[in-house]
Amino acid sequence: MQRNHNHTTIVTIEKVIDETPTVRTLIFSDDRMSNVLPGQFAMVWIPGVNELPMSVMISKEPGKAAFTVRKHGPASTGLFNVKEGQQIGIRGPYGNSFDLKEGKLLLVGGGTGLVPMMRLLSFVKSTDDVTVLIGAKSKDEVFFEDLANNMLKNNPHKVIVSTDDGSYGEKGFVTDLVEKLVNESNFDGVYACGPEIMMYKTVRSAHSRNMFVQASLERMMKCGVGICGSCCVGEDLVCRDGTVFDGDHLSSNKEFGHFYRNKAGILEKY
Amino acid sequence: MNQLLYSKLSSLFKVEPSLATSIGQIQLDRPVMLASGILGISLDVFNRLYRSGAGAVVTKSLSTEPWEGYPNPTIFSVKGGGWINAVGLSNPGAPNFAKMIEPNQEVPIVVSLVGSIPEDFEMMIQQFENCKVIAYELNLSCPHVAKVGLEVGDDPELVRKIVTIAKNTTDIPIIAKVGLGTTHYLNTVNTAIDSGIDAITAINTVRAMAIDVETQRPILSNKFGGLSGTPIKPIALRCVYEISSKHDIPIIGCGGVSTWEDAVEFFLAGASAIQLGSAVGNDWIDVFSEINNGILQYMKRKNYSSIKDMVGLAKKS
Ligand SMILES: Cc1cc2nc3c(=O)[nH]c(=O)nc-3n(C[C@H](O)[C@H](O)[C@H](O)COP(=O)(O)OP(=O)(O)OC[C@H]3O[C@@H](n4cnc5c(N)ncnc54)[C@H](O)[C@@H]3O)c2cc1C
Ligand SMILES: Cc1cc2nc3c(=O)[nH]c(=O)nc-3n(C[C@H](O)[C@H](O)[C@H](O)COP(=O)(O)O)c2cc1C
Ligand code: FES
C-alpha cells in the first residue's frame, strides 16, 4: 500500500555528522525522503520534545536521506541532540520545489538554508556553469563548502564563501557578492534560501535585472499541510503554496522581507 | 403531482438556483463557510478564501490576550481519514486581531471568541466596534484547552451569562458553537436559546488521542486533541438533525464536510449553511468552489431555487 504522506513514519537515525559546533547532519533510511525534489521539506517529530519543519538534505547513499539542523530553541536543540540509534517521526514530503533552469546558475545559501541548495546541486546538468555563494557568520560556522566543490567537480563552477566578520573567505554580507555578480553577468537562474533579509536582497538584485529568481521561504509552521494558517505571508501559505516562490510573486508580496508572524500569529517587523 | 408533469412544468418555469442563504438575520451569498481555526490569522488570506468561494470566514477563536498555543506536534493525520489537533487556541488576541481586520470591506467575517468569564466576551466584542463583522461565534466547545471551550459549554449558568452579556453588548447576531462535552450538548443548546442566541453551530471537534506504537508515546504534545474531518461527519449530522427536530433555530452544520453531498446532507438535516475545515488540508482551497458547484448542480437537478428549499427535508419522512 502506498504510504500516505500525512501519516507519521518512524525512522532510526543511523549516523550523526558534526558539521560545525552548532550544526549536525542526521542520516536515516527512507526511500521517499531520499527522492524528494529540491526545496521540499518534512515535518520532523522528536518524541517528547517537539515537531518542526526541516528541509530534506541529500545523502551519498541511495535510499537514505538526512536533515541538517542548527541548534537554536528547544525544538531544534532536541533534534540536534538525537543520537545514533534513536527514533524520530517524519511526515511529508511537503511543498513545491525549485524550477531547474539550464546554463549559468547562481545558488545563494545562508546557514542551514544551504540544505535545499545541496539538493538542487544534485540536479544540475554537467554543462551548467554554477556559482555557489555560502554565507556564514564566521569561519567556525562554514559548512558544505567541500561538499559543494565535490558535487560540482565535473562542472565549470565556483564556490565562494563570505563571512560577516571576514574570518574566512570574503568579508561582508553574501548579498553584496550577489549584487556584484548579477551586475557582472547574466544568470539564467538565481536561487536563494537562508535568512529572509538575504533572500529579499537577492531577489531584488536579480529581479530588477529581469533574471529568473526563486527563493524558499521559512515561516512558523505547525501543521505543514495548510490547515493552521500560521505560515502565511500575505495571502500565501508557505507550506502549501511554497516553500519556493518566484521573484515576480515575491516582489509584490508586502510582507516578504519586512514582516514575520510570531507563535501567537502577531505580525512583527524583521 | 405526476412526476412527468412536474418535470415538464418545472422546465418551463426553470429558475436559476441561487446559493444565497440566510442564518436568521445573517445573509450569505454562498452557504459554505470556513470553520474557525483554519487558515484564520490574516486578512489577506480571508480575501483569498472569499475569492475562492467561501461564503464567509470564521476567524480563529480569539482570547482577550495573545496566546502562543501548545508546542508541536499540534496536529496528527488519522489513518482512515481526519485529523486530531491540539493547537491550543494560539491566536494574536482580540485587540490585535481587530486592528488587522479593520480595513476589511468585502469579506463576510464571523469573529470567533473564547473566554472563561462573561466579561471577557464583553471586552472582546467591544474591540470590534469599528470592524465590518457579520456575526460573533461563541466557542463553547474547544475540547483541549482548560477553563475555556467545553468547560464553559458544560456549565449552563456560565453559558447563560455569556450569551446574555454578548447580546447586551452588540446588535450583531451571536452564534453559539456547541460540541460534545460532559454535559449533554442539547442542554447547552437549550440554555443558549433561552438566553437569546441567534443561531447554533454544531459541532466542534471531538476529544481524542493518538499513540505511536514504536516510541510508545502519545503523539500530540498536549496528549489529547480534537478529532475533525470525515470520521466525525455522521456524529455532526446527527446533532444537527437532533437540534433542528427540537428547536426552531437557524443551524450551521460543521464536522467532516468534504464534498457537496456532505453539504447537502447537512441541509437536509436542518442546517442553513455549513462550515468546513479539515477538507482544506486534503483538497486545499479549491474545495469551496467544488462544493458550491456540486450544490448548484444538485439544485438544478432537483429544481430547487434556493438553499431554503432543502433545509430540513430529511425530517419529513
Ligand atoms: C520549510 C522549512 C525548512 C526548514 N529547514 C531547516 C533545516 O534544514 N535546518 C534547520 O536547522 N532549520 C530549518 N528550519 C527552521 C527550523 O524548523 C526551526 O524553526 C528553527 O530551527 C528554530 O527552531 P527552534 O528550536 O528555535 O524552535 P522552537 O522555538 O523550539 O519552536 C518550536 C516550534 O515552533 C516552530 N518554529 C519556530 N521558529 C520557526 C521558524 N523560524 N520557522 C518555522 N517554524 C518555526 C517550529 O515548527 C517548532 O515546532 C526550517 C524551517 C522551515 C519553515
Ligand atoms: C487545526 C484546527 C484548529 C481549530 N481551531 C478552532 C478554534 O479556534 N475554534 C473553534 O471553534 N473551532 C476550532 N476548530 C474546529 C473547527 O472549527 C471545526 O469545528 C472542526 O474542525 C470540524 O470541522 P471539519 O471536520 O470540517 O474540520 C479547529 C479545528 C482544527 C482542525
Ligand atoms: S503550517 Fe499550518 S498552514 Fe502552513
Secondary structure blueprint with pairings:
The complex is a heterodimer of chains A (270) and B (317).
Chain A: E1 9-12, E2 15-20, E3 23-29, H1 31-34, E4 41-46, E5 50-55, E6 64-70, H2 74-80, E7 87-94, E8 104-110, H3 114-121, E9 129-136, H4 145-151, E10 157-163, E11 170-171, H5 174-184, E12 189-193, H6 196-207, E13 213-216, E14 232-233, E15 236-237, H7 238-241, E16 244-246, H8 247-251, E17 259-261, E18 267-269
Parallel strand pairs in A: 8-9, 8-12, 9-10, 10-11, 12-13
Antiparallel strand pairs in A: 1-7, 2-3, 3-6, 4-5, 4-7, 13-16, 14-15, 17-18
Chain B: H1 3-12, E1 21-23, E2 26-28, E3 32-34, H2 43-51, E4 56-58, E5 75-77, E6 83-85, H3 94-101, E7 109-113, H4 118-127, E8 135-139, H5 150-153, H6 156-169, E9 174-178, H7 185-194, E10 199-202, E11 206-209, E12 211-212, E13 217-218, E14 224-228, H8 233-246, E15 251-254, H9 260-269, E16 273-276, H10 278-283, H11 286-302
Helix pairs in contact in B: 4-6, 6-7, 8-9, 9-11
The complex binds flavin-adenine dinucleotide (FAD), flavin mononucleotide and FE2/S2 (inorganic) cluster.
The site of flavin mononucleotide has 28 residues of chain B, from strand 6 and helix 10.
Cofactor (chain A): [2Fe-2S] cluster
GO molecular function, one term (chain A): 2 iron, 2 sulfur cluster binding
Protein name (chain A): Dihydroorotate dehydrogenase electron transfer subunit
Question: What report would you give on this structure?
Answer:
The complex is a heterodimer of chains A (270) and B (317). Chain A contains eight helices and 18 strands. With 270 residues, chain A is an alpha/beta fold. Chain A has a seven-stranded mixed β-sheet, with helices on both faces. A four-stranded antiparallel β-sheet of chain A has the order 1-7-4-5, covered by helices on one side. In chain A, strand 4 (41-46) and strand 5 (50-55) form a beta hairpin. With 317 residues, chain B is of the alpha/beta class. Chain B is 35% helix and 18% strand. Chain B is built from eleven helices and 16 strands. Chains A and B meet through strand 5 and strand 7 of A and helix 2, strand 5 and helix 10 of B. The structure holds flavin-adenine dinucleotide, flavin mononucleotide (FMN) and FE2/S2 (inorganic) cluster. The site of flavin mononucleotide has 28 residues of chain B, from strand 6 and helix 10.
